[in-house]
Every structure is written in structure tokens, then in C-alpha cells.
Amino acid sequence: MCRPDHFDVTYAINPWMDTSRPVDRDLALRQWETLRAAYEAKGHRVEVVDGVVGLPDMVFAANGGFAVGDRAMAATFAHVERQPEGDAYHAWFTAAGFTSTTRAVAVNEGEGDLLRVGNLILAGHGFRSSTQAHHEVREFFGLPVISLELVDPRFYHLDTALCVLDDHNVAYYPAAFAPQAQRLLEQLFPDAVIATDADAEVLGLNAVSDGRHVFLTDAATGMHAALRERGYEPVGIDLGELLKAGGSVKCCTLELHP
Ligand code: ARG
């Protein structure tokens, strides 16, 4: 995770961002601390990456890269405003002791668009990461990659439209995907939790699951109920200030898979 010490909305690269709406950074910091504390309370270790002055979106650590085991690929951002974050996250992966680190060549926004479910990588494209990036990821990590096209600009990253619940199942919002991607998801995950419009619109799918606890916005009440029904334990977090930049729980979290 990256503390939102330099968080702000100074440019608009997704429909959630409105530079005329002020951001309360102290509130953002308090909300972020709540998320960190919630992870730690459930037994998860949190590493903190230093934010960088002038990189207001760096709090969205999920976009910094993608890591499996001791291999890590740092991101290459689509928008010039976020491009320097790629080097910062690359430096962090190297310092953290990953034995094989690389910097993506093609546009690749890390876990924003790459989500591991079991031994499969689901990969979004359409707004940020390129399909070229999907090939690069397949080569570097040696895992199968399933490309899924996103079509709704509000759900510009895969992690705004789909959440991995455990090694076998996901929750997602079908309308965010192109018809072919919808069919693929139906085949791969016949028991998926299907999110309602209301849950998707508060970024209820931008969630992190450890297979039992699912950390997500407390505003996604339908998701909370659906998850409970399936035996998961939802943990509600309010990240309202960070939502002003188009991010929620998952965006703030880069998962280091064993
Ligand atoms: N303002 C950021 C952007 O548009 C938000 C990134 C959210 N991160 C995510 N993993 N979806 O790039």
C-alpha cells in the first residue's frame, strides 16, 4: 500500500475525477489508515511504499505492477501524469528482494487490469492496459492469461468490474464487459456473484478477498448480503475521499501472491 500523503485530484483521466471538487487529504489519510488496520486485524502483513510528491494517484498501489512468487513486473502507465510511478514501483520491487523484476514494455497498469484467480490470470483491456501487455505477462510469468474487453468508461480497469473471491470464484458486473468477455466469464465462473448496478456504481467490486474475508466499500450493501449468503465475511470500509479519484479498496492494494 502507498500512504496518500500526496493524494489529490489535479487532473482527470477517468470519469470519476473532477478537478473542481476539493479533496480532504486528512480524511483520505484517515480512511486509508482504516483499511490498513482492517487488513492487519485479519492477520495480513502490509508493506508501505513511500508516496512521491507530484504523483497524486500513487496511492493506488494496485496499478504499480503485478507479482507472482519472486517475479514482479512494474507497470507502464497509459497516461503521462502517472508514468513516473512505474519507476517508483520498479525500485520498490527490486529493493523488496524480488529475484526477477522487469518493467513492462507495453502499456500495463498492473493489478488494475491483471487479476490472478487460481493459476489463471484474468486481464482487462479497452481503456488502459493493452492486449500486447497480456502477451508480455504470459511470457514473463508462464501462466495462462485470459483477455477480457472492458466497454464502460466508468469501469476503466478490470478491478473496478471484477473481484476475485478465492482460487475458483469471482464476483463481476457483466455490463462492464464486451459480449465475448461476458460469455467467457459465464463459462469460467458459472457460480459467480453477479453485482447489481447499484453495487458496481459505488465500486463495490473494487474489493480484496483472502478467500474468507472480503474487504470492500461499506456502500455496496447488495454485495455485502450476496457475499454473506455465500459464506464470505464482508469487511466494510469507507474510502469516500479516494473514490473522488476513481479508486476504492482494491486500487489501494497491490497483492503479493506467494
Ligand atoms: N485516478 C486513478 C487512475 O485513473 C485511479 C486508479 C484506480 N486504480 C485501480 N486499480 N482501479 O488511474
Could you give a quick summary of the protein structure above?
With 258 residues, the protein is of the alpha/beta class. It is 26% helix and 18% strand. Arginine binds at residues 13-14, 17, 57, 60, 62-63, 82, 112, 157, 159-160, 245-247, 251.
Give me the secondary-structure topology.
Layout: H1 25-41, E1 65-68, E2 71-74, H2 84-95, E3 100-103, E4 114-117, E5 120-125, H3 131-141, E6 145-149, E7 162-164, E8 170-172, H4 179-188, E9 193-194, H5 197-201, E10 208-209, E11 213-217, H6 221-229, E12 233-237, H7 240-243
Parallel strand pairs: 2-3, 5-6, 8-9, 11-12
Antiparallel strand pairs: 1-2, 4-5, 7-8, 10-11
The protein binds arginine.
Please explain how this structure is put together.
The protein is of the alpha/beta class and 258 residues long. It has one domain (25-257): L-arginine/glycine Amidinotransferase, Chain A (5-stranded Propeller), CATH 3.75.10.10. It is built from 7 helices and 12 strands. It has helices spanning 25-41, 84-95, 131-141, 179-188, 197-201, 221-229, 240-243, and strands at 65-68, 71-74, 100-103, 114-117, 120-125, 145-149, 162-164, 170-172, 193-194, 208-209, 213-217, 233-237. The strands form 4 sheets. A 3-stranded mixed β-sheet has the order 1-2-3, sandwiched between helices. A 3-stranded mixed β-sheet has the order 4-5-6, with helices on both faces. The structure holds arginine. Arginine binds next to loops.
